[in-house]
Amino acid sequence: MESFSSESYPYAVARNAVYARKGMVATSQPLASQAGLEILKKGGNAIDAAIATAACLTVVEPTSNGIGGDAFALVWTKGRLHGLNANGRSPRNISIDQLKKAGMEEIPAYGWAPVTVPGAPSAWAELSGQFGKLPLKDVLQPAITYAREGYPLSPTLARFWNNGYQKYRKELTGDMFKHWFKTFAPNGRAPRVGELWSSPDHARTLEEIADTQAESFYRGDLAEKIAAFSEEHGGYLSKADLADHQAEWTEPIKVNYRGYDVWEIPPSGQGIVALEALNILKGFEFPEKESAETYHKQMEAIKLAFADAHEHVTELTHMKVKPAKLLSEAYAAKRRSLITDRAIQPEAGEPSSSGTVYLAAADGEGNMVSFIQSNYMGFGSGLVVPGTGIALQNRGHNFSMDPKHVNALEGGKKSYHTIIPGFLSKGNQPVGPFGVMGGFMQPQGHVQVAMNTIDFGLNPQAALDAPRWQWMGDKIVEVEHRFPHHIAQELQAKGHQIRYQLEPNSFGRGQAIWRDAESGVLAGGTESRTDGTVSSW
After folding, report:
1. CATH, domain 251-356+419-536, list 3.30.930.10, 3.40.640.10, 3.60.20.40, 2.60.120.260
2. 356 included as an active-site residue
């Protein structure tokens, strides 16, 4: 671990990286991390631990994800990296014309219009079937127990839960939303810190998913309940949409950054934003981390990469400009040439023809998993399927209502997707999984954590703790309250509109586990901006 051995960071909170050998799980919720570790100690591998943790997070952090969301994974096993895309499609019978006839000029955040097929249960079943060691029923048992018996809310969780409740009680009107309030505000309010919350419906659903390898969710009793709820309220999701869904194994995409391969899931995910930005940035030298010049170039590269993604990225089969073009050396050089000493207003280029939860898991056998799942925008669509505890996602909110746009809403299509797992390797050996959840902060967080690790030699905890920034649009960049003031002033002088943001969770929540190639020792970091925990063995 010599490359990542920095003991401290001048602006970091006082936390150290965690070191272990037999296994490690890093996530934003202590109960979920411990559930993954429990599965490792029962003979499961890192894949089993990741599934157990992910399922548990739907119970112990429902403010960010749920059974009705999507999931993606990067899995290092058997000497190579595998990508899993469990992104659900839009309903077959939805269209821009339909929504406009219903009086919608943009896709709403709540209700049935933004609901897409949930992919998370298919991800658990597919990972378990391909690479797991234990039966899925054993792996999901910790989540089932927490859902049935309940657990006390942690402080950060309670705050986000109340924020969601306050928003939903204003926004959600109509009979279709009553099940959300029954499930998540059973006493007419959000549960409080230390208060027990349980969901027996959620427990029964998890048991049915475990018993049927998720078949019930897509082609059985659970699918019937989801489709019936949709039909009752004039929704677009049907039994056929659910039955058509299948998690897909995919070849991850990468760029080489200073001798390290940085990996992401290919579009429709936005991981390509992080890769394009790194490809641009590798043409510069960064002698020191804490300089206005370093931050300026990072911000400019991110802006250029986002502009390209918003113009070109959607489901891979619908993309006119393929990832290889956006990640080519020639295109990186072309975009790099646009970076001067002044902040720019980014525009998309044309390459020539030429609310989410993230977890990292590793075991003593060398298996490593980077896993992410989300309902989007907190609790999602505001719809909970009666009697199931299934909170449906609102991922379709990211579609465009412009029929000429590459990411235009169509039936049976995958939208531009924000959630992205990351992975780092070097010389055909895994370094490890990393990720930073949080909407459009995610690729920006990936770039910052990767550079903190590779360029500046920070250990995983220090790489996560370092103050973050987030480009918000135009020339506006938000920075954390711990961000150095003198550097903020220098960035202002370069034309950036710097805004200090006091809310720490505006800058994402990350996890990372690095593995030493010689000893197999694991070094883990977790998010200091929330209730993050590394459970290790």
Report:
1. 3.60.20.40
2. yes
